[in-house]
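Pipeline run #58 for the internal structure catalog. This entry was flagged by the ingest filter as a single-chain record with no existing model, so it goes straight to prediction. Upstream metadata was stripped on purpose; only the residue string is passed forward. Reviewer on rotation: M.T. Logging verbosity set to normal.
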Amino acid sequence: MRFKIILTFIFVLMLGMIFSQERTKTKQKSKNSYSKKNPTLEKNNELEIFNKVFNNLNNSYVDSLNHSKIIMAAVDGMLESLDPYTKILRGASKERYEMLAKGKYGGVGMSIDEVRDTVIITRVYEDSPSYFEGIMAGDMILAVDTTNVVKLGKSATIKLLKGEVDTPVELTILRRPGKQKKFFRLLRGSITINDIPYWGLDDDSIGYIKINKFSKYTSEYFKEALSSMSDNGMQGLIIDLRSNGGGLLRQAINILDYLVDRDMENPILVRKGRDSIRNYYSKNNPIIDKSIPIMILQNNRSASASEIVSGVLQDLDRAVIQGQNSFGKGLVQITKTINDSLKLKVTAAKYYLPSGRLIQKYDYLGDGSLIDAEKKDSIYFSINGRKIRGGGGIQPDIDSKKNKMPGFVRSLWANERLFVLFGAEYSQKITDDAFNLYRNYLKNKFGNDYVDLGQKYAIEILNDNSLSYFEKIIIDKEKEIELSLNLSFINQAEKLYNQLNKHTAYENLSNKNYDEIIKHAIEVRKYIHLSDSEARPSELLKNYLTDNNLFFYKGSSSNKKIGKYELYSILSRLLGIIIDLDISKLENYDIYLYDINYLDIDSQKEDIATKNSALSKKMKSQNEVLDWYFKLFYNLITPPHNNIGFSDGDVEYIAKKFKLFSEKEKLVSLFKKFVDSYNFNYFIDGEKEFNNLKNRLSSLPEFVDTESDNQNFINEYLRKKKFNKLVKEMENYIYKNKKKYFFLDENSDWIINGIFREYAKLSIDNSLSVKTSLYLDNEYQLALSKIKDKDEHYRLLTFSR
């Protein structure tokens, strides 16, 4: 019976593949003709063929068959005959899709990389278990639980870090400076994915938003960024969709809703399936005014949802598109759950932009089935009458291509994360150099009175000489975490307190009583979390109290009381809130528990908010100093903070103190010395080709060092000698030029940018790292120039190419 069920399941799975196969010609024309008129009979005939093949294999094959493997191979073969986007999701691909759809995963909230044999933390996400436990970018992971991860590798370490929400994991960390060994016990949390790594305004109030992917919460983060920049006087907007492969359609629609006029009559997107049509409209008024110009950056890896955003904005003449032709994916996929380990992703529809065009490029099958063949390369018109083409992706209004990283620098990036390691090793020196220059600048501008300047300057960090500037920045980050944890604890304690206050019987409890109740409430939450029992929370509560000799039986005089009331009774009334407590933020709750004044919780929360606001301003001004310092290496002399006077004298002083050529040479020399000390292997242009040629020539008979019967041995000797001499000369030439390659302008700028990007990621935050990368981004710089010239921007939106 079980075998028949399996066979039936196979028949259903194989149906699509059978239909994709070429129909078998039969000699009986009448039967063939009849089958064409009767698809059901044709399907049954083909299912019967498969049934016979499978049964014969199962009964006659020389070895035992792995039915599961055969079925999955058949399913893959069936889908392979369709478009490249219809596929089975299993293992890692299924996990990636679910992370995209849910926007969350169970983990500790960090990004890691591998440097030689060691795993280094490159980013810690805010409001994550790692963040609240004080783990920092730049920390090195030595062990996860009892597993030593040195030499284990990045992928294997990620698997150890991920897991079910609220499950514990212990990390052994090595922290710089000082190479301190630290131990952390974390509870995995639900980590929300933020696919907008950076947004911000430049000195001319031009906004920039980088979108990596359209996952579940992308539009929320986009709205937050757009609103904040708009409130701060944004004069233009650049949206970076380069290498964004798409994601969730709904997120793209939401983002368009924030940018284009409300229109419930004309759809911004039409989705056409085999038997259905769905229109999407802009339902809300835009967040930003129509007068604010928009530029979109895209490349040939911008696909799907990215093309919806750029294509709609192009059709409605709301944005100028810059870059390369986009990928050309105008198809919509839906997913169907097959079982716990498999999902089927199916191409179910095509989408059409406001002009009516489909941007799907000519399909992989070569039969025109995934495009509108009659409309391929057809001319369409934007709302202002500009000519635009359908098919083959979104064509940009301005062609541009990002400058490639020089081959020499690429080889440095490829060699065991050199820049990551250098950024961690020299973080203190880079920080101190930046703030020493800043101190001298302020002293020159304001004299000794600079120490009395207000919060908009990074003064506080300059006043205490007992620690390095880098150590002070680390301490401020730890303070920020502590304030966040304190506020989180007070908010959770307040819920418990408010619930108790709903019952008039508990009105006379003291502050000390409340402390004791909340302590037990948290311990009950931990007890429930760690319990393997399937008992109800009320039973687990009783078990906790019994195990700790706090409850014996109902009415017992030995039952624990707080005030006049039994603890069991009190906690029973709080149980609904207790089971919702976020224990990932309660690991060291006793640090904050005894400082709460329950009668004045609002004042305490305001006090924390005030401290946090002051600290945020302080850290913001410190980050501005570092960004100011980075820009000097690109000959961009600007004020370190906005809205302060900046004179020609300031420019002259900075240029005098910061000698560009000398500072660049010093930093690159330090990096080269670091590279040489680790004996990293890297190549200059042509070196690999030379080594390949040398190896090939050396293997030829004419140059092999063996005894020869050749009578003309003198000619052979001379030939070999010339060859060896030439090789030696080339090797010497390459060795000498390797030193020079570090200091060539086209290389040194990229090396310095790599150093600052990794330093910022490890020591400050990932957003400053992304911002730093823009200083060498020629496409971004071009977009800036176009968006600042409003007349040129308007011209591009009103005239066809």
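catalog note: The domain at 198-399 is CATH 3.90.226.10 (2-enoyl-CoA Hydratase; Chain A, domain 1).
catalog note: The radius of gyration is 33 Å.
status: ready for reviewer M.T.
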